[in-house]
């Protein structure tokens, strides 16, 4: 499974102050790549975007879109309390990438 990381996602994960949380999130993403599928608690949030949910800390979320069975676009990340804003941003990112022919 191939992942494409947006600059929004890369900035979010690099700026995450909780180093243990960053480590756990990246570990799960690596497990997904190894398994060839999304592993863990996921939920569609509309507009072609889904969230990978983490039940530790403030409820971290990773927003993604999937194309076919091998390509995952990691759009954004956030926490439960900013979920609505983060979902809107992930949808906008996906739409922009579609319009630019990147997705």
Your description of this structure?
This protein is globular. The chain starts with a strand and ends with a helix. The protein has helices at residues 7-15, 19-35, 83-99, and strands at residues 2-5, 42-46, 49-53, 60-67, 71-79. It has three helices and five strands, in the order E-H-H-E-E-E-E-H. A hairpin with a 2-residue loop joins strand 2 (42-46) and strand 3 (49-53). The protein has one domain (2-99): 2-Layer Sandwich (YaeB-like fold).
Look at the helices and sheets and give the structural class.
alpha+beta
Mean pLDDT score? 93
* Most strands sheet: 5 strands, mixed
CATH topology tier name: YaeB-like fold
Element order: H for helix, E for strand? EHHEEEEH
Q: What is the class in the CATH system?
A: Alpha Beta
Morphology call: globular
Helix content: 40-55%
- Strand percent estimate: 25-35%
Our count of domains comes out at 1
Distance between the termini: 16 Å
Stretches where pLDDT is under 50 for at least 5 consecutive residues are none
CATH superfamily descriptor: RelE-like
Quickly count the helices: 3
Count of β-strands? 5
Q: Do you know the CATH architecture?
A: 2-Layer Sandwich
Task: Give the strand order of the largest sheet, numbering strands 1, 2, ... along the chain.
Answer: 1-5-4-3-2
> What radius of gyration results from the CA coordinates?
13 Å
Which secondary structure elements does this structure contain, and how are they paired or packed?
Layout: E1 2-5, H1 7-15, H2 19-35, E2 42-46, E3 49-53, E4 60-67, E5 71-79, H3 83-99
Parallel strand pairs: 1-5
Antiparallel strand pairs: 2-3, 3-4, 4-5
């Amino acid at each position: 499974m191939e992942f494409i990381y947006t600059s929004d996602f890369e900035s979010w994960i690099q700026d995450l102050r909780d180093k243990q949380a960053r480590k756990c999130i990246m570990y799960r993403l690596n497990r997904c790549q190894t398994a060839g599928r999304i592993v863990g608690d996921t939920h569609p949030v509309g507009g072609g975007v889904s969230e990978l949910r983490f039940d530790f800390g403030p409820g971290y979320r990773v927003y993604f879109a999937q194309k076919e069975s091998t390509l995952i676009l990691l759009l954004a990340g956030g926490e439960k309390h900013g979920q609505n804003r983060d979902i809107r941003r992930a949808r906008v990112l996906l739409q922009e990438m579609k319009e630019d022919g990147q997705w």
